[in-house]
């Protein structure tokens, strides 16, 4: 068998914080890391730990910061962390939009206004109607997330609505149009939309199917491939259990690369089925949509 | 003694703005002009840009657009991801490819991807998007200072100049280093005004105080006959959305790559 394809870390540009671990107020059936209200296999990051890693990241020249979970806003120190990080770089928060509070929004609005950097919100909603969204994300989650979107808009933010493609691709345009319409009805006049492919690991592997054995990157596939399309080529994620290669693979023990960012600057073998999805679509975790549509 | 240099970004076929910028630079005593690439896109009559560059001895970096047109690639490699953005990018790319002469395509094909210069003790790097990737977007609100410090260090450059995003900005770094996005001449900056921008860099030589920075960076607004450009775009059947941008100063396309702060500043 030939050696597995390897992704080098070309440049540590984005640093992710798994700020609420695997804890989430929702229990989405397609979650790629099985987050739910009782899954504490990864725990909250403390403020002091995030500040320590932030210091190391500045010394290494990190370009952008992302806060994810679980649901980041469950961590009651999130807002204070973001206020600090915005002093040194841009921040994106990935939220389900269902637990936002106006006093947090006020503080974050002020923090962004005082910063030269952008504060982005990515709100996960998986369809333009409760009928499409709620069976996957839970009862009343559509209504609650849309209230969150309306609140973000009220505070002048332009949230990026992130959808996992749980529909047939032939319906894509219809779904996107419906989404734009419903967002406008909720006061979001220039909606930004991002589509994510399904990642067939975690809860999603149980909901539908996992990866087939052939769904793996081979060494041959790497020839002529722009490796910067893979998040692990320019990113790492900080968890309470150390630094991992990417926010998708934290439940894979081989994805842990070290205790510090410096230790985690090593090559990564692309052995997981999720690596294949990342390869297929490109930049799936970046704020703009993926470059490729489903084949 | 002072030496002045002018830097032009993204021309996007806007030969009228380029001509106006060249005249403005001359009037300010500029001794050398540079262009950071993306000569085509958006506007009319691509071939009208080249004589201005050649006659004025403007050293030019190859942008992603120039690489694409020069090699007759399938698309502009602008780095958009949104289907609507790519739809409009494809329209202007097809127009520009069709209307650029073989000689000018060959000229673009041979442009360097970066230019390195040394002025006194200032090592200067001219690129298109970033020194490491031609079509990388370095936006003001999503590029940390720590990252730029690393970039300057890795590239061993005192001044890095780029364009590609369409919006000018400047970050002063440690040890009198600078990162400068020079802006673009091709279209207005999504602020509701019709003027475009270039960058004037003044080097004060024989600086007696070693601690003091010898570099001054100024962004120069350029007025030009945008109405004539808009009329010519209409004659060439260029999409109405592009013409609206020229006449109003608001971007109507290629918006989905903008970060929150830059997006909020615009109308759409």
| Domain tally of chain B | 1
**Helical region count of chain A?**
9
Order of helices and strands of chain A: EEHEHEHEHHEHEHHEEEEH
Q: Indicate the radius of gyration of chain B in whole angstroms.
A: 18 Å
**β content of chain A, as a range?**
15-25%
Distance between the termini of chain B: 45 Å
Query: How are the strands of the largest sheet of chain A arranged?
Result: 7-6-5-4-3-2-8-9-10
Describe the largest sheet of chain B. Answer: 5 strands, mixed
Number of DSSP helical runs of chain B: 9
Oligomer: heterodimer
Count of the separate structural domains of chain A: 1
- What is the structural class of chain B? alpha/beta
Give the proportion of residues in helices of chain B: 25-40%
CATH topology of chain A: TIM Barrel
CATH architecture of chain A: Alpha-Beta Barrel
What is the residue-mean pLDDT of chain A, rounded to a whole number? 93
pLDDT under 50 segments of chain A (min length 5)?
Answer: none
Low-confidence parts of chain B lasting 5 or more residues at pLDDT below 50? Answer: none
CATH domain fold name of chain B: Purple Acid Phosphatase, chain A, domain 2
